[in-house]
Automatic annotation (TrEMBL):
This is Uncharacterized protein At2g39795, mitochondrial. It comes from the Eukaryota. It comes from Nicotiana tabacum (Common tobacco). GO terms for cellular component: mitochondrial matrix. It holds the Pfam family MAM33. InterPro entries: MAM33, MAM33_sf.
Length: 228
């Protein structure tokens, strides 16, 4: 009698019983938990490294607060960008605007037997100098290289104030100009404060800005990783 009561389960009953099994749910919960743990561990490691790097940079050689003026030039630091802008008035009707990149290239240094040369490379900064004389007049533009302790004029343009070169002919390469004319153009910039000393300042300023921007970048990344 008891044996007759214990019958094999039918197809529908088997399906219902399998649906009630907790194993797939437990497996999914475990997998999600492990994935979450891995993600938190991964992000936690990134946060740890960012905090360490920020602390290291601030303790080893903390950046200075950017100055807002140099030799009558007003400096626009442009936080978060890879360039700065400087402006000054010169005499009665002249305005000088300078746009300067952060370090954008380098060249190897031939030390020879000079042990006093510490750096293996010379860092390069591109500098564009615009000289304005009154409203509506053409602009004299110099494209220069600012080396660690010297200035090099690469090109001289005449263009309109809208930023577009007016004439198709933009002049010969600077080094093909007469030597006396080259010297006169260097003197022209020198009189307006664009000289070797200015380049020394720019390299010092950009080294500080490079460190500031690096720390700002890490701070932003840290804030992002800390969000839940």
């Amino acid at each position: 009698m008891a044996r007759r009561l214990v019958r094999p389960l039918g197809g529908i009953a088997k399906s219902l019983l399998l649906q009630q099994q907790p194993y797939p749910v437990i497996f999914n919960l475990s997998r999600n938990y492990i994935s979450e743990m891995r993600r938190e561990a991964f992000e936690g490691n990134i946060l740890r490294l960012l905090r360490y790097e920020i602390r290291y940079e601030l303790e080893r050689s903390p950046p200075s607060q950017p100055i807002g003026e140099f030799d009558s030039f007003i400096i626009d630091e442009r936080p978060g960008e890879q360039w700065i802008k400087l402006n000054k008035k010169f005499e009665e009707n002249e305005e000088i605007k300078v746009e300067v990149t952060m370090f954008d290239a380098s060249v190897p240094v031939n030390k020879g037997n000079d042990a006093s040369v510490a750096d293996d490379v010379q860092l390069h900064i591109t500098m564009i100098v615009n000289v304005f004389k009154g409203e509506g007049n053409d602009v004299l533009e110099f494209v220069c290289s600012a080396w660690p302790n010297s200035i090099e004029i690469r090109k001289v343009y005449m263009r309109g104030q809208n930023g577009v070169v007016d004439q198709p002919y933009v002049g010969p390469p600077f080094k093909e100009l007469d030597d006396e004319l080259q010297d006169s153009l260097y003197d022209f910039l020198e009189t307006r404060g664009i000289n070797d000393e200015f380049c020394v300042f720019l390299h010092r300023y950009m080294k500080n800005k490079d460190k500031l921007e690096f720390i700002r970048w890490m701070e932003k990344a840290k804030s992002f990783m800390e969000r839940k």
